[in-house]
Every structure is written in structure tokens, then in C-alpha cells.
Amino acid sequence: MGKVVQSLSTDHQAFIARQPLFFVASAPASLDGHVNLSPKGLDSFRVLDAQTVIYLDITGSGNETAAHVAENGRLTIMFCAFEGQPKILRLYCHGRVVTPRSPDWTALISRFPAVPGTRQVIVGDVYGVQSSCGFGVPRLSFVEHRDQLTTWAAAKGEQGLVEYRRAKNAISLDGLLTPETER
Fold first, then answer.
1. DSSP state, 6?
2. Is the residue at 164 inside a domain?
3. Position 78 in a domain
4. How far apart are CA 182 and CA 169, in angstroms?
5. What's the domain count of the chain?
6. Per-position DSSP letters for the chain, written without gaps between them
7. Residue 101 domain-assigned?
8. Which of 43, 174, 181, 183 is deepest in the core (most CB within 10 A)?
9. How many beta carbons lie within 10 A of that of residue 21, not counting itself?
């Protein structure tokens, strides 16, 4: 059984800083809705303090996490060690979506490098941290982050991204409206 605490320790924060990949999970309030699980990479995660984390959300094929978080605030973030000592770390959070129109956008976005396709920042107010062994996670070697997403977004340009978000990111698989970024 994993150990559960209420905030991130300095050891947790150091572990997170070493991971090139994390996963986010969310679900709508409806029992027949889709549970969403998404891998995230790039230089897109920050720990603000022992109970607050943020990640940069980049335009992609969907916007499920943002729709779910806007509806009910439920968000789980998971890190697992593929190199070194085995470990899994889950962050149970109350989430919120910060868009370019939000009052705290400038303060949060300034914590990340400029990335083509940036859509929003997801904030997680951590209320539980669970660590577990990770003995079943395979050892893998990190080679590099892929550049296809940012290359695609740069080629689309700002207006192309606005149009793409309107067409592909405005409504979740469950019919929920996503937070307005640029529609």
C-alpha cells in the first residue's frame, strides 16, 4: 500500500524535477462520461510550493482535461520513474484552468519558456500525495523530447491555432464546453 500525505515534500519535488514525463487524469461528473488520461512532456511542469503545481497545456487533438477540470475540479497527476530507483508519485488535486484572459495568466505563464501552441495553464491545488513502489514499471531510457507538437503549432501560426481550437478543442468528448481560450 502506498503512503499518502497532504503536501509535497522536498524529496517529492526533487523526484518530480527529474521526470521528463507525467500523466494527467480527469473525468466528467457524469458516470457514463469518458475518463481521460494524457501523457505530458516538454518543459511543462512546475511546483510552486508544497501544495500548488502548474503545467503548461499546449494545443493538441483534444481539450478533455480542461473541460473536466472546469466542470468539477478533479485532477490527478502521476509521475513514475523509468530510470533509477523505482517510484510512482500521484498528486490528487483540485484543479482550475487559467486562460490568457484570466487575471493570473501573466504571473503563471512567466514561469515557462515561450512554447508555440500554448493554450492554457492548469493549476493543481494538491490535497493528497501518494507514493508507491513502482516495481512493475519498466526501465526505459529518455532520449529527447519530440518536437512535432511545437513544430506543428508554429507552422499553424496564431490565427491557425485559434481556428483549430474552435473546430477541434471547443467541446469535449462528453459534450462539455472547454474553458474559453480563443474562440
1. S
2. yes
3. yes
4. 10
5. 1
6. --EEESS--HHHHHHHHH-S-EEEEE--SSTTSPPEEEEE-SS-EEEEETTEEEEEEE--S--HHHHHHHHH-EEEEEEE-SSSS--EEEEEEEEEEE-TTSTTHHHHHTTS---TTEEEEEEEEEEEEEEE--TTSPP--------HHHHHHHHHHHHHHHHHIIIIISB-TTSPBPPPS--
7. yes
8. 181
9. 16
Strand partners, 171: 177
- Predicted model pTM: 0.95
Backbone angles phi, psi at 95, to 5 degrees: -100, 160
Residue-number span of the structural domain to which 110 is assigned: 3-133+146-169
Q: How far apart are the first and last CA of the chain?
A: 45
CATH code for position 14: 2.30.110.10
What type of residue is 57?
A: D
- Report the SS3 class of residue 134: coil
Per-residue pLDDT of the chain (183 residues; tens, 9 = 90+): 678 999 999 999 999 999 999 999 999 999 999 999 999 999 999 999 999 999 999 999 999 999 999 999 999 999 999 999 999 999 999 999 999 999 999 999 999 999 999 999 999 999 999 999 999 999 999 999 999 999 999 999 999 999 999 999 999 999 999 997 654
Residue 175 in any domain: the answer is: no
